[in-house]
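Our platform keeps sequence and structure together, in a single record for each protein. Such a record has a labelled line for the sequence and another for the backbone structure tokens. This encoding replaces a full spatial description with a residue-level series of whole-number codes. Below, we set out a record of this kind in full and without editing:
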Amino acid sequence: MNIHVQFDTAIAMVSMGICFGLLLECYRRIRPKKNGFVFLTDALFWMAYAVLLFISLYKVNDGIVRPSFFLFWLVGCLMYSTFLYRFLLPIVDGLFFSIRFLYRLISGTIRIFLVLPLLFAVNCILSLARMIKFLLSWLVKVVIVRPWTAIRRPKK
């Protein structure tokens, strides 16, 4: 392994350490609080990050793992936690705010333009069905039942 590949690998590991700090911060914000999925989501996060780390290592130097690379990764984590935390955290907050805003906007638009008119149409159809049922029962009572009882009534 020549010096150029080692330098590229060191830069990749430092950037993956910074990426780890950022991804961990994002994961802490979306992590479930108190239910049975915490263990599962933690395991999935760590497995996904390990795969991401070793894919980047494979792309840079064909997957050769050396202890110094983990030190560079640790340097990247420390750089994030000491210097970059203050600058990147507002960006993460803005990203989450934007995602929540877009979700609420899209779900509200779908609710207003699709769900509510559909519910209104269903309620109108149900009301019409109830009115027709009432009118038919009244018509049967007035046209058939009353005259039939008048015919069958004995004369005094």
